[in-house]
Each structure stands twice: as C-alpha cells, then as structure tokens.
Amino acid sequence: MQEKVFNVQGMKCKHCVMSVTEAVEDLDGVESVSVDLEKKTATVKFNDFVSEADIINAIKEEGFQAS
Ligand SMILES: [Cu+2]
Description:
67 residues; alpha+beta; Alpha-Beta Plaits; 4 strands; 33% helix; globular; binds copper (II) ion
C-alpha cells in the first residue's frame, strides 16, 4: 500500500471534486481518495493492482489535468 499526492488542474467546484473522486475510487486497487479543491490535489492510497499512470489516466478521462 502506498499513498501519493497527485496534482489536479481544472477543478472548479464540488461537482468536479466528485467526478475526480468517483473516477479514482472506481479503480481496482484504490483504497481511498481525498480530493482538495483549494490545494488542487488528490491524495490516493492504493496497492499494486493499480499504477500511478492508471490513476492519472482516470482523472484525465474526466477532463482534468493530472500529474
Ligand atoms: Cu465543477
């Protein structure tokens, strides 16, 4: 299990936060997600079933930039 803070650009409201949260939560291997709108971050706890790239792609698919 590891925890990583991703930078997420483009979130403007609670709805964006929900989109990002749900997209990441849906990935197999993700234990928890905490999105901070003001800091523009997503803190994710995940295991080996999912990669950093998978998480970034899931966020991008929602229309946000992630790194
Ligand atoms: Cu929004």
